[in-house]
Amino acid sequence: MQIKRYEVGSIQEAMNKIRKDLGEEAVVLSTKRLRGGKVPLFEVTAARDASKIDVDSQKPRETHESGGKRPSVPAEMDMIRSDLTEMKSLIRDMRKEDSIRRELSELREHMNTLMNVLGTWEKNLFPGPASKIYYLLVANGVSRERAYKLASTIDEADNFDNTCKLLEDKITGSIPVTSQRRRKGVIAFVGPTGVGKTTTLAKLAARYAMSEKMRVGLISADTYRIAAADQLKTYAKIMGLPIKVVSEKADFKEALSRFSDRDLVMVDTPGKSRKDQGYIEKLQDFLSIGVPVETNLLLSLTASRENMLEAASRFNMVNYDNIIFTKLDEATGLGAMYDVIDEVGKPVSYLTVGQNVPNDIEDANPGRIAKLIMHQSQIMEE
Ligand SMILES: Nc1nc2c(ncn2[C@@H]2O[C@H](COP(=O)(O)OP(=O)(O)O)[C@@H](O)[C@H]2O)c(=O)[nH]1
Ligand SMILES: [Mg+2]
Fold first, then answer.
1. Ligand closest in space to the Cα of 222
2. Are 208 and 216 in contact (CB under 8 A)?
3. What is the pTM of this model?
């Protein structure tokens, strides 16, 4: 792969140069308008996969003399890293716009593809354990971008296991969790359809009501699917807990005032597909009732990293307080938790590890999460 950067007055000028230097197979990696000058100036980065062209055309492998001296790998990495930083800031701005959210996913995919291409170089960039750790993290579902960051700041110990341990401690220190104080008040569960909101609510209701002897009331605002409220009603019946089904904000307020004798009110919310316009706005309005609502966003680890990040950003408007990761028992790539936590910056409150109510839930613990991020197999061993 050969990468070249051009500063040109127009994109057409860049295209002409690229075609001349890199040939018809060249692809444009990025274009950027450079600010400040009186005349327009663009930075265009283009690449050609030399190995592919050589194989395809059966020509002897070209030297890179015609395209100028090949820049050193770290210089190329710097260039691409600055492109990634710019893409990330663009993505951050774009997040506010509902209509271009899908493009955000595509951009992320492109970014990953780019990182895949870079993978072959990265191998040579880290010496010894750092490279092994980079691949361990990537294999475990951490994005290349974040694995690269972690591996490049690694403190090396005398052997691989101890180096891993040092990194694990570092990750442990970076995982925020919700303090497991005794909860009171109103707790809501939000997230995409099928992530485990109702099941997780039932697990926690059982724990608080049975083990901690708290007075718990349940509210189901899940009125979109006929059967949805029935699911929670069944749990409520088994546990002997009062439940109210609400659809409007006024009903919700009314239900809360009726539950004023309860220590804890747990609220199940509808999950809707991302195609439903205005769903997040409605949910946000629904939860703004003048009393504090501790909102937990549930993300299933059976979804892809991109999918979780997209959901985390889509639910931003609800201003959730904590994250609950679900379905760890069925997921591969638990390292994706690192990306979500690093991106979102909100504490994790629980992990769920199976379908059994009430047992398959754990309090979030930084050390345990760091272990799962680095060594997927831990979930099996416990
Ligand atoms: N394997 C596994 N399945 C889970 C877990 N939590 C929930 N589920 C299952 O996921 C499905 C959807 O759960 P549900 O609570 O109805 O999701 P909701 O739509 O978000 O309310 C059900 O079959 C649950 O049993 C978990 O931690 N592990
Ligand atoms: Mg549900």
1. 2
2. yes
3. 0.71
